[in-house]
Amino acid sequence: MTPIRSLIATALAAGLASAAAAQDAGDNIAVAYEEDGRYFTADDIPTYNVAEDGTVDWLTFSGFRRYHSECHVCHGPDGEGSTYAPALKKSAVDMDYYDFYSVVVNGRENGNSVMPHFGDNRNVMCYLDDIYVYLKARGMDAVPRGRPSKKEAKSDVIQEDENDCMG
Amino acid sequence: MRKLPLLTSGIALCVATMASANDDLMTQMDDAKQWAIQTGDYANQRYSELDQINADNVGDLQVAWTFSTGVLRGHEGSPLVIGDTMYVHTPFPNIVYALDLANEGKIKWKYEPRQDPEVIPVMCCDTVNRGVAYADGKIFLHQADTKVVALNADTGAVEWEAVNGDPSKGETNTATVLPVKDKVIVGISGGEFGVQGHVTAYDMSTGEQVWRAYSVGPDDQLLFDPEKTTALGKPVGADSSLKSWEGDQWKIGGGTTWGWYSADMEENLFYYGSGNPSTWNPAQRPGDNKWSMTIFARDIDTGEAKWVYQMTPHDEWDYDGVNEMILTDQEIDGEERKLLTHFDRNGLGYTLDRVSGELLVAEKFDPVVNWTTGVDMDPESDTYGRPAVVAQYSTEQNGEDVNSTGICPAALGTKDQQPASYSPKTEMFYVPTNHVCMDYEPFRVAYTAGQPYVGATLAMYPAPDSHGGMGNFIAWDNINGEIKWSIPEKFSVWSGALATAGDIVFYGTLEGHLKAVHAETGEELYRFKTPSGIIGNVMTYERDGKQYVGILSGVGGWAGIGLAAGLTNPNDGLGAVGGYAALSDYTALGGQLTVFALPN
C-alpha cells in the first residue's frame, strides 16, 4: 500500500469513528506532547506550537506555504475566505480533525458550491496535517496574517516522511 | 476616425471572397446601435461611434432599467444587443437569457445547460464566463465544461454541440469564442492543471472540428511551418517548441488560451496570446518553454502560424500572455502601419506590426514594474526581443524554497483579462490595471492529472511607496510607450473599458461604481454605485433614438478571491496588518445588469 492510500484508509476509518468523540476547543488546541518536531493534543490530534518569541513549529510554517499554493486560489489569502469559498481558518477550529480530513480527501458538494476531492493529490495529502495546524493557528489568532517570520527547523523524521509520501 | 476605412475595406474583401455566414456578423458589428460581439469589433477596440451621451451631459446619466441574472458569482463579459434582442449570460451554470427590448426586457427564451458540478472546483479562481457570441443567426456559448453550443438566436434551440476538452484533466473554459468567416474559434483554460493549451476551429454551421493548433509541442501539433512561421522576422526552424523544454514536460506545458481574440480580415489572420507554462515552480521546467507567454498570428482558414513573439521566456512569475490584442491603423515614424497593441500581465505595453510581427515598442505601463529593466530592442543583438531579468526578482535564480520579495507586478499582472479600449479620436488606449506586488516562493510539486499543479506560495500586497491603492485606470500612448494620465483606484480595476465618440470613457470598479471620465483628461464626470462589485465590461447600444450603457455587476473572479479579505504586506511588519482595504467592506456577491440612459 502506498503512503497515500494508507493515509486515506486511515482517514476514512477514523472519520467514521469520530462523530461520537466530540472535542472541546481547549482540548483540540493545547499542546500535550511533541514528537520529532510535530505537536499533538492529549487526544493525539495534530496542533500548532508558537513559542513566546513568535517562532512557529515547522508544520505551521509548511502549512502556510502549502495553503497558499493549493487552497488560496479558492479560499483566499491567510485562510480568510473569499467571494468564492469559505474562510478555512474557522473550519479548522470548528470542525473535528477527522471530518476536516475527510472533506479534503473526498470533497463535498453543496449546490453550486463544490469542494474538490484531493485524496489522490500528493501536494495536498502529504501536507494535510501541515495545512490543518496552520489553519488552526490562524483560526485561534495564534499567528498573524502573512508569512510566519520565524520557524523551527524541519526534523529529520518530517523530511523522511515527506520523501516517502511525495515519492 | 481611422477605424472606419479599415472596417469598410474588411467588409468589401469579405463579400468579394466568400458568400459567408459571417457577412451577417460583419454587418451587425458595423452598426454602432448594436453591440454584436464582446470585443466591440474584430479589432478589439471597444469603441462606439454613439455620442448622444457625451462629456457635456454624462453627469445626468440615470438608471433606465435593471435585470437580475439569478446567479451570485463573478460576472465577467457583457451582454450583446442584436436587433430587438439582448443576450445576457451568467457564470456557472452558464445560463443564457434572450431579452426582448421591444417588450420591456421580457424573457424571450432562457437556456440553462446541464453541467457536472465537478467542473466547478477545477476552475481556478471562480466560475466566470466572458460571454456569448453571435453570428449567422446563432448564439455561441462556450460552457465551463468546454462544451461549445450553438443556439438558435430566435428560439434558443440547440443547433449543434461540440466538446472541446476534458474537465477531468483540468480542461475548462472561461472565455468567449471568436466567430469569424465560416468558423468558430475557441480556446481552453487549465494552465494551473498542466493542460497542453490549444486553439480549435469548429465549422460554424455543423460544429465539426476543422483544425486544432497547440501552443506547446511538436511542429505538426503547433501548425508551424518551420521555414515560414517567423519570430521577430526570422523563421522559427524545426522543433522550436520541443527544443525549449526538458524531456516530456511540454506535454503538461500549459500555454492555455483563455483570453480574447481579434482578427484582421484583410490579412486573413487572427491574434491571441498563450498563458503560463503550467507549474509556477520554474526549476521544474528548464528552458524557454516555447510557445507559452506568446503572441500568435494565425491564418483563419488553416490555423497555421504566420508569426509568434514570446514575451516572457521561461516564466518565473505566472505572467500569462493571454490579454487582448488591439488592432489599429496608425502613423508611426511617419509611416502608416497596421499595429497590434497588447498590455501584458508582465507589466509591459507592446506595440507590434501585426502583418510582420516586428516589435516596435515595449515599455512599462506601470512605473513600479521591477522584474525587468526592459526589452532588448536591437535587432542585431543575441537577446533581441528578450526582457532583461533583474536577478533580485528572479524566482528561478533565487531558487526553490527561497522567498523572493517585492516583485512587481504580482502574479495577477499589471493587467489581467479585463480588456482595454482604444479611441481613434484621441489615439489613446484606456487601460484598467492592477497596482499590486508580491512575494513568491517556488517549491517542488508533483503532477496528478486533473489536480492543481502550482508549486509556489504567493503573498500579494498593494504596490509599496505608491498611493496605497491596488489599481490605476490609465491612458496610454502606444506610439511613444507613455502613460498620458493615471487615475489611482482603491482596488484593482477589473472591468473592461468602453470609449465613445462622446469623448468619454467608462469603466467599473470593484466597489461597484460605474464611472465615466473625460477621454482627454481623465477627469471624473459621473459615478453610480451598482449593487455589487464590477468585473464585467461596459457596453453601449441605441434603441428608438436613445443611447444606453450597460454593465454587469457581480464581484468575484481572481479579484474577489484575492481581495475579499483585503491584502496585507508581510514586509511591513505587524503594525500594517489590516491597514489595507478589504473588498468585503464595500460590496457583496451579486448578479445584476444595470442599464443607464439620459433622462427624457
Can you summarize this structure?
Chain A is built from eight helices and five strands, in the order ααβββαααββααα.
Task: Describe this structure as you would to a colleague.
The complex is a heterodimer of chains A (167) and B (600). With 167 residues, chain A is mainly alpha-helical. In chain A, 50% of the residues lie in helices and 8% in strands. Chain A has eight helices and five strands, in the order ααβββαααββααα. Chain A has a three-stranded antiparallel sheet. A two-stranded antiparallel ribbon of chain A has the order 4-5. In chain A, a hairpin with a 2-residue loop joins β1 and β2. In chain A, α1 packs across α5, α3 crosses α7 and α4 crosses α7. Chain B is mainly beta. Helix content of chain B is 6%, strand content 35%. Chain B is built from five helices and 40 strands. In chain B, strands 16-15-20-19-18-17 form a six-stranded mixed sheet, with no helix packed on it. Chain B has a five-stranded mixed sheet with strand order 1-34-35-36-37, with no helix packed on it. In chain B, a hairpin with a 2-residue loop joins β11 and β12. Chain B is globular. At the A-B interface, α3, β5 and α6 of A face β31 and α5 of B.
Order of helices and strands of chain A: HHEEEHHHEEHHH
| Structural class estimated from helices and strands of chain A | mainly alpha
How far is the first residue's CA from the last residue's CA of chain A? 13 Å
Strands of chain A, total number: 5
Shape of chain B: globular
The spatial strand order of the largest sheet of chain A comes to 1-2-3
Strand content of chain B: 25-35%
Key words describing this protein structure:
heterodimer; A: 167 residues; mainly alpha; three-stranded antiparallel sheet; two-stranded antiparallel sheet; 8 helices; 5 strands; disordered N terminus; B: 600 residues; mainly beta; six-stranded mixed sheet; five-stranded mixed sheet; 5 helices; 40 strands
What is the element layout, followed by pairings?
The complex is a heterodimer of chains A (167) and B (600).
Chain A lengths: L2 H16 L6 H5 L3 E3 L2 E3 L5 E2 L10 H18 L12 H7 L2 H10 L1 E3 L2 E3 L6 H4 L2 H12 L16 H11 L1
Chain B lengths: L2 H15 L4 H9 L16 E2 L13 E7 L11 E3 L2 E5 L6 E5 L5 E6 L21 E3 L2 E5 L4 E6 L5 E6 L14 E3 L2 E4 L11 E6 L5 E6 L4 H4 L7 E2 L2 E2 L26 E3 L4 E5 L20 E6 L5 E6 L14 E8 L2 E9 L4 E6 L5 E6 L7 E4 L11 E3 L5 H4 L5 E4 L13 E3 L4 E7 L1 E7 L13 E7 L8 E7 L4 E8 L8 E3 L3 E5 L4 E6 L5 E6 L9 E5 L2 E8 L3 H7 L28 E6 L3
Parallel strand pairs in B: 1-34, 15-20
Antiparallel strand pairs in B: 2-40, 3-4, 4-5, 5-6, 7-8, 8-9, 9-10, 11-12, 12-13, 13-14, 15-16, 17-18, 18-19, 19-20, 21-22, 22-23, 23-24, 25-26, 27-30, 28-29, 29-32, 30-31, 32-33, 34-35, 35-36, 36-37, 38-39, 39-40
